[in-house]
Specification:
The structure holds 2 protein chains of 2 kinds.
Chain A: E1 4-9, E2 11-14, H1 22-32, E3 51-52, E4 56-57, H2 62-75, H3 81-85, E5 88-89, E6 95-98, E7 103-106, H4 113-138, E8 143-146, E9 159-166, H5 171-189, E10 193-196, E11 204-209, E12 217-222, E13 229-233, E14 245-250, H6 259-277, H7 289-297, E15 305-307, E16 313-315, H8 316-331, H9 336-354, H10 364-379, H11 386-395, H12 404-410, H13 420-428, H14 435-446, E17 450-454, E18 457-460, E19 467-470, H15 477-489, H16 493-506
Parallel strand pairs in A: 12-13
Antiparallel strand pairs in A: 1-7, 1-9, 2-8, 3-4, 5-6, 6-7, 9-14, 10-11, 15-16, 17-18, 18-19
Helix pairs in contact in A: 1-4, 4-6, 4-13, 5-6, 5-7, 5-8, 6-8, 6-9, 8-9, 14-15, 15-16
Chain B: H1 39-47, H2 53-56
The chains are: A alpha+beta, B mainly alpha.
Chain lengths: 508, 63
């Protein structure tokens, strides 16, 4: 399995302010998490969203114009760029910041699904704690946060899953192997949505679909993320040694509340990447992937079929079955986690076709549909009643006293891989076998000596010249543990870097 | 130049390599109780939701 992580942009609103400024609110929320004053330390120098994995640099993004407009407005605010971003790097190696208009939590890099789920859930609690502190400052319960992807007015925000992939795998192989899988992945990973919409256009109430994001996907491939969103994002920002690695940056996914859905979303995608790397992915070429994505999303009965380039028709379940069968043939016995995933993936596809009720508490779109149908019967509503969109929204509320999913979870109706203790531990520490955990150790031990951070690099102050820890090729778990051990024991970053450099040179 | 900032809270020395339990060990996956939901409790929570909450909810486009 690859190294992976999830970035989640949260929806934010205030009950007491009709025309809330999302930039200021997101900034204030992130800062409410601090126990001291903010100073910049995220280094944006290595980031360039214009680099395209197809081998060129985009001259401009669709969102550049809008960003320029925002920048003009932002220039009139009494904050600098870095103050508005309010980038925090947390003791668990996660990043928590204002991604312009949304509080965003990016998990540290994880190697196991258990760690990923714990870190993703840690993010929910971190933003909730920030909201509690912000509410205390405001003098009442006013800020609400939603782990979802739409405002039901044509505005979407993302939950991106990321995977470390060898650069040797041709990008064309990733496209061929991934697009049909991603178009159909929503049957297990969709968060469910009442109504339909499109980018910055009118919301149409009524009906129910599998995915929150399908309405906002407009093209098959592309480097953009805010307009003309692609099924497969081609942004080429590896955040690692560019000669050896890619970062697969998937923007098509929904934000999941169900741990099981998150585990299957990331886990099965990892298996498909393994298949592609081995040249064993099934050959499915969809005729019109973007249209297929929307057709499949809008059919919660899972009866819809989409056309392949060969002229055959396949349902979402049939496409998933092809990938599942290839993965079973090729990857059974390759690891404990892979075997668990194969078992659960197969069982889920079986239950989707035969007894969906057993997936309540495991898949978000199934769980939400069940809740809404129960409510519709109780209250005698129609699917176009505006109350249902509000209930859809509140399913994703991260406050356990308000959120519908979290209410269900509190009743023991949700499948859990994490425990509360594991989540609390994930708030304190990152994974012990990834550079994400190492980043967290550096924050815990040498916070005051860190001058800047990128995903693959930490810059320390001290001495005549600055020192840095390069993590662009630090992925071997044993090597990570050795490096982490050095930073745990050292008296200063300079000592740690000298010891680590010596050990790398001598192989000790 | 001052440097950063405490984040949340500084923790004491910790095990740098916390071991996550395996799926079948204690704390492993727990299946949902698929019996009847506590309808009263959940329905009560759902009825408390303001029908106009989504209508008022506005965000800017994100990524």
């Amino acid at each position: 399995m690859a190294l992976f992580g999830i970035e989640t942009e949260y929806g934010i609103t205030r009950d007491d302010v009709p025309e809330m400024d999302p930039v200021v609110e997101s900034m204030e929320l992130v800062r409410a998490y601090l126990t001291a004053s903010f100073e910049r330390r995220w280094d944006y120098a290595g980031e360039d969203p214009h680099e395209d994995a197809r081998g060129f640099r985009a001259s401009g993004l669709q969102q550049d114009k809008e960003e320029d407009e925002f920048s003009k407005v932002d220039a009139r605010r009494p904050f600098s760029f870095h103050e508005m971003k309010s980038d925090l790097v947390l003791p668990n190696g996660a990043r928590f910041y204002n991604d312009h208009t949304h509080p965003e939590y990016s998990t540290p890099e994880c190697r196991t699904l258990r760690d990923l789920l714990a870190q993703d859930r840690a993010g929910e609690r971190i933003v909730l704690r920030a909201a509690h502190r912000r509410n205390q400052m405001l003098g009442g319960a006013r800020v609400r946060l939603y782990k979802n992807n739409t405002d039901f007015h044509g505005h979407s925000y993302g939950c991106h899953d990321n995977y470390l992939v060898p650069r040797a795998v041709p990008f064309s192989s990733l496209v061929a192997g991934l697009v049909p899988f991603l178009v159909s992945r929503q049957v297990i990973a969709g968060a469910g949505k009442v109504g339909t919409e499109a980018q910055e256009s009118r919301y149409v109430p009524g009906g129910y679909q599998l995915s929150q994001r399908a309405d906002f996907m407009e093209t098959e491939l592309g480097v953009d993320t805010m307009h003309d969103r692609p099924i497969l994002n081609t942004r080429d920002e590896p955040h690692a040694d560019r000669r050896k690695y890619r970062r697969l940056h998937l923007i098509i996914g929904d934000a999941n509340m169900c741990e099981y859905a998150t585990a299957l979303k990331v886990g099965t995608t990892g298996l498909v990447l393994d298949l592609i790397e081995r040249g064993a992915a099934p050959c499915v070429e969809l005729d019109q992937p973007v249209i297929a994505l929307k057709q499949l999303s809008r059919d919660p009965d899972l009866k819809a079929v989409v056309r392949t380039k060969e002229g055959r028709t396949l349902s979402a379940l049939a496409i998933q079955e092809r990938y599942y069968e290839a993965a079973s043939r090729e990857l059974t016995g390759s690891g404990e986690e892979s075997d668990w995933l194969l078992k659960e993936w197969g069982e889920t596809l079986h239950l989707l076709a035969r007894d969906r009720s057993q997936l309540i508490g495991k898949l978000d779109w199934v769980t939400k549909q069940w809740l809404l149908e129960t409510f519709i019967q109780e209250e005698r509503l129609g699917w176009d009643d505006p109350w249902l969109a509000s209930l859809d929204l509140e399913y994703h509320n991260v406050n356990p006293e308000q959120g519908l999913y979290l209410g269900l979870e509190a009743e023991g109706k949700a499948w859990r891989m994490t425990t509360d203790e594991l989540i609390e531990e994930a708030i304190r520490n990152g994974p012990g076998d990834t550079r994400g955990g190492l980043r967290g150790v550096c924050v815990q031990r040498f916070s005051h000596q860190i001058t800047s951070v990128q995903w693959e690099r930490i810059q320390f102050a001290g001495g005549i010249r600055a020192h840095h820890l390069d993590m662009g090729d630090l992925f071997d778990p044993q090597e990570v543990r050795r490096c982490m051990n050095v930073f745990q024991r050292a008296h200063s970053p300079a000592d740690a870097l000298a010891t680590w450099s010596h050990r790398k040179d001598t192989g000790t | 130049m001052k440097h950063i900032v405490t984040l949340e809270r500084r923790e004491g020395p910790v095990d740098p390599m916390p071991k996550a339990p395996r799926p079948q060990e204690e704390g492993g996956p727990r299946r949902p109780d698929t019996g009847s939901p506590d309808k009263d409790s959940l329905m009560k929570r759902m009825r408390k939701v303001d029908p106009k909450q989504a209508e008022r909810y506005r965000q800017r486009t994100g990524e």
